[in-house]
Amino acid sequence: MSRLITATFFVGLLALKVIISWVYTIIYNLYFHPLSRFPGPKHAAASHIAYSWWFLGGSQPYKVLDLHRKYGPVVRVAPNELSFNSAQSWKDIYGFRQGHKPFVKSEFYDGGSFAARGVHSIVSERDPAVHGQMRRLLAHAFSNTSLLEQEELVAKTVDRLVQVVWEQGANSGASINIGKAYEMMAFDIIGDLAFGETFQALGNKNPHPWIEITLGALTQGALADTMKRFPGMAKVVKWVLSSKIAELTDGTKRNEDMAIDLLNRRISRRTRRRDFMTRILEHRDLEKKQTSDLELAAHASDFVLAGSETTSTVLACMTFYLLKNPHIMAQLQNEIRSTFDEYSAISDISTRPLRYLNAVCLEAMRMYAPLPFSLPRLVPEGGGSVDGHLLPEGMVVSTSPVGASLDPANFSEPFTFKPKRWLTESPKDVLEASQPFSLGARGCLGKSLGWMEMRTTLAKILWTFDMEFADPVPDWHGDSRMYTLWSKPQLHVRVKPVRTPPFVSKAR
Ligand code: HEM
């Protein structure tokens, strides 16, 4: 009996200690924390629970947007974390600033794929000096000359998309999941460029296992982030979800093994094909092999991750909003069809001057930031300033892509698809508040390639087909969730050919 009383006493004492420590932390966060002067909801300032709740539930970008609309351009979204949404904050946090230390990536980026093998990649490396070295080598694969050389490979896969859409729907009027088709095309393009072979995903009913595992693992970003925010609870979660976590770890390992195999195959193939590896291997040899094959496999995997979902998301969103707005669709079709008499004339160079096409792409990326997650950065040693606010070192800051581009403070009628806003100056639209590729040293390396894919794919599809919605028509924002990347609605269409591309008769 006395043992029971003693045990109950100690459990009670422990519970009291935990409660006192929670109460202390909450009071400190609310009233004494260096960020306590910033506006925001009290529950988000008190603990990480609110932030993790939004992230795990997929509503984080919309929640942060609501907060910016309520509290203004800076909001405290977690105890040590501020969200910004002004054009200036993009420049201050991500851009190069003379005489200022850079805001480096936060711990969020730790523990990605290949981390267990002790290797960092271009996306996950946080040290600016090491990252700079990586980026200098990899940039050879993304130069204008390289892009020109790679266009043939890209065009081949875009043509395959047009062919697949033709085969699936041109004659039968069948409904086509065009969103999925864009996704598979984007994976095939980057697979081909990064590993020297496509994933054969386009037109294939079962997605390549690499794609499936990769997309599955990416959506676990919210869980990984939550575990970092609650290290004590993480132990319990790891134990409760041990079989699920083991499955994910196993999937990641299999993907890494597959990437290593693919890369080794590409390296051993002495070929003149112009893909990413052509230039990277050339320069790696010149630069005394400072990058191992394992690191190259990690970079190649990152290229696929960074370059596929982003591009296909823009294509899907553009198609949705064009179908929703027939007058905009008609204007774009007219621009494309009156510019190109022949399908084969559609290329990166020839689509660059199409002003309306460019504006449609920019507007789609504004309405639906292809990388919706607020990219977290640390205030540097000694402190730093963002948007005129002096901040103590170690705090986490970001510009919310969705919060910036859908706030009426930056764009008039933010939920209306208006490509025109990119063609005529208006004081109501702060165009620089939309930065889909981010900025500065960690800005997108594949921006020009992404543009090539977006412009040529849309031009080729709209040159060939008229299109209409097939059921069910999604509510684009309403049906979207964010788990690091978008979990976006399916997009089904019916197509009617208006012109015949040269390869179609051969293919049928
Ligand atoms: C519309 C298409 C695209 C968009 C909107 C986009 C957007 C972005 C953004 C916002 C970042 C910064 C990520 C961060 O800070 O964590 C990024 C980084 C990156 N992107 Fe893209 N991206 C696109 C297409 C591509 C393509 C086609 C590639 C080709 C492989 C690519 C390769 C990369 C790489 C390698 C990085 C890391 C750069 C670094 O840290 O030095 N992206 N991208």
UniProtKB/TrEMBL annotation:
Positions of heme binding: C444
UniProt keyword list: Heme, Iron, Metal-binding, Monooxygenase, Oxidoreductase
Any GO molecular function: oxidoreductase activity, acting on paired donors, with incorporation or reduction of molecular oxygen
Matches recorded under CDD domains: CYP60B-like
Cofactor: heme
Highest taxon of source: Eukaryota
Signal peptide: none
Record-linked InterPro entries: Cyt_P450 (IPR001128), Cyt_P450_CS (IPR017972), Cyt_P450_E_grp-I (IPR002401), Cyt_P450_sf (IPR036396), Cytochrome_P450_monoxygenase (IPR050121)
Keyword Lyase among UniProt keywords: no
PANTHER family: CYTOCHROME P450, P450, PUTATIVE (EUROFUNG)-RELATED
Family, as annotated: Belongs to the cytochrome P450 family.
Protein name: Benzoate 4-monooxygenase cytochrome P450
Lineage, uppermost ranks: Eukaryota, Fungi, Dikarya, Ascomycota, Pezizomycotina
